[in-house]
Recover the amino acids of this structure.
């Protein structure tokens, strides 16, 4: 009986692999993006999806399973990763019924919807082993992974949708060189079990790598080692020489996986990027240099010294848009990782590997009316301090601080910027520009050089034409549904 089951499984796997080799089912590897939504100025999801498609971004990683976002992604052709929040891990780990409900509500309903959402991954947790969590989520991860996997099997989706656990790079460490990489002692057993699961299901080990953070946190870190143009301080590891931090970090993980018996496990990069402001090393030039260097490096298929010719299976840039409500506990740069500003406007030229170095701006953004709140030039500003504190406590003033694009616009410019950012947050309520008579509304754009005085987004106004109302082309929708039908048919064969 066992032999017959094994034979059937091998036949099914072979048929499934053959199906993936059909011309219409082949999907080329591409650089994707993280789409976070920690912002008070959220663009309508259909506008964001249009932005993805206009720039040829074929993969997107979400941190949850937002209803509006997933509806907008239906029929788009964009490959999607949805996420289980860390706070939900305990409940899912404790209950198969809870896992079934999560998959039904956040996965099955969208895959089966008209046009379908092309969900490829479920991220169970987000950096749940992070040292700063002090083990808070550690015991829940593997049980939650197991229960979600069983729920996918029940839903006939396990052969198509893979489970990953995005890990911070602090899950492993090395004394000095990549070949000495090992997992943290408190994680060795968990990582061995996780790697075994990933190997069985054909999913990659997912890690977030941030050379920017290494450079930001250490004055001894060689700056040129963080980029991809070669370094005057390479790391020599026996016969291998490392000229950039990304490769060194990646191979440290390869070494750690090898030491637990899974050195050939595919690796995906869940987050990697460079902010555009908020620190002396964060600006438009360094962000462009890092991201362009990374993209060129990955798409060259050069690989790393320990994996020559084998690049990561997926790479997700962090991030698509700025998020002005993120915590700035790590630094002011946390709100400025976007390739685009909060409203989908390009920050700098970038070639995503599609032949063009020009990113396209978002279209049909539903802005509030073009008006701004600035300081009243006829008023005495002696008592402005409390008003500035209020504005910058409620709204995002990080661009005014050292390392920000608006840091050098003068005292009155700073006050006007703070007044305006609060005014826009309050949806241009006239009372929010009063500040005891110190503020005034203007219809002339007060932006200064690279310091842009924003106009907020009107989240109460419906777009005249929403991309969510635009059906996918008959060809793309037909191929997607045919793909799903074939995959599900092969999956069901094993249960007959």
């Amino acid at each position: 009986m066992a032999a017959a089951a094994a034979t059937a499984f091998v036949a099914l796997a072979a048929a499934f692999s053959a199906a993936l080799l059909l011309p219409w089912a082949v999907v080329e590897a591409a650089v994707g993006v993280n789409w976070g939504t920690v912002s008070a100025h959220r663009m309508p999801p259909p506008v964001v999806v249009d932005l993805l498609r206009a720039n040829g971004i074929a993969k997107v990683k979400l941190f949850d399973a937002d209803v509006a976002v997933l509806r907008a992604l239906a029929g788009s052709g964009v490959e999607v990763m949805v996420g289980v929040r860390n706070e939900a891990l305990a409940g899912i780990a404790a209950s198969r019924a809870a896992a079934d409900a999560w998959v039904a509500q956040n996965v099955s309903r969208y895959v089966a919807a008209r046009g379908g959402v092309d969900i490829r991954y479920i991220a169970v947790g987000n950096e749940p082993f992070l040292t700063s969590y002090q083990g808070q989520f550690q015991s829940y991860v593997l049980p939650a992974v197991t229960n979600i996997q069983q729920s996918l099997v029940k839903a006939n989706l396990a052969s198509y949708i893979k489970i990953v656990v995005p890990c911070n790079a602090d899950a492993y460490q090395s004394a000095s060189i990549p070949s000495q990489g090992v997992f943290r002692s408190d994680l060795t057993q968990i990582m061995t079990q996780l790697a075994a699961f990933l190997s069985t299901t054909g999913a990659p080990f997912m890690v977030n790598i941030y050379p920017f953070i290494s450079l930001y946190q250490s004055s001894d870190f060689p700056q040129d080692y963080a980029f991809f143009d070669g370094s005057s301080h390479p790391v020599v590891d026996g016969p291998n020489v490392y000229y950039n931090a990304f490769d060194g970090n990646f191979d440290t993980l390869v070494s750690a996986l090898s030491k637990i018996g899974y050195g050939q496990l595919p690796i995906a990069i869940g987050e990697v990027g460079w902010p555009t402001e908020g620190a002396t090393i964060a600006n438009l030039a360094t962000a462009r240099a890092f991201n362009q260097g990374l993209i060129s490096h990955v798409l060259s298929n050069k690989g790393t010294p320990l994996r020559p010719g084998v690049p990561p299976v997926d790479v997700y840039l962090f991030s698509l848009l700025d998020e002005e409500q993120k915590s700035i506990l790590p630094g002011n740069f946390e709100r400025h990782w976007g390739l685009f500003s909060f409203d989908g406007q390009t920050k700098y030229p970038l070639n995503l590997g599609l032949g063009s170095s020009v990113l396209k701006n978002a279209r049909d953004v539903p802005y509030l009316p073009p008006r701004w709140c600035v300081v009243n030039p006829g008023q005495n500003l002696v008592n402005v301090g409390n008003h500035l504190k209020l504005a910058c406590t409620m709204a995002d003033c990080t661009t005014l601080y050292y390392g920000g694009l608006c840091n050098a616009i003068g005292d009155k410019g700073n006050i006007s910027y703070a007044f305006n950012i609060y005014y826009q947050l309050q949806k241009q309520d006239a009372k929010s520009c009063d500040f005891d008579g110190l503020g005034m509304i203007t219809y002339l754009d007060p932006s200064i050089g690279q310091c842009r005085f924003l106009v907020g987004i009107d989240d109460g106004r419906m777009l005249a034409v929403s991309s969510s109302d635009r059906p996918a082309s008959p060809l793309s929708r037909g191929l997607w549904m045919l793909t799903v039908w074939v995959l599900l048919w092969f999956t069901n064969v094993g249960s007959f």
The chain is about 35% helix and 10% strand. Residues 157 and 472 are 22 Å apart (CA to CA).
